[in-house]
Amino acid sequence: MPLRRPPKPSTTPRPAGEPALAVLPGLGPRSQAMLAAAGIPDLATLRRLGAVVAYARVKRNDPRASLNLLWGIEAALTGLPWQTVAREHRTNLLLALDALEDPKSPRQ
Known about the structure:
Blueprint: H1 29-37, H2 43-61, H3 67-78, H4 82-101
Helix pairs in contact: 2-3, 2-4, 3-4
């Protein structure tokens, strides 16, 4: 198993006392950077927004973001392995994302 480099400290300012995203298991430096670039610099903001809204913000900011990021965010917030999220929560997350992107969607 290759060794992972520790994440670089975030250059995005965050309120004093707010934990950095680095404390979340499963969110590597690239995911953290994508979240920060989308205006989600800390754990409190991520929790407030939730996985679906946070992913939608990242996707708007960086169209290359894949659904693996959504699974990773949800896993980090819930403490579940991302594989479990992808397998067992996939449909609910995708429906919530669809409803967020299209408020008139009949699947709400």
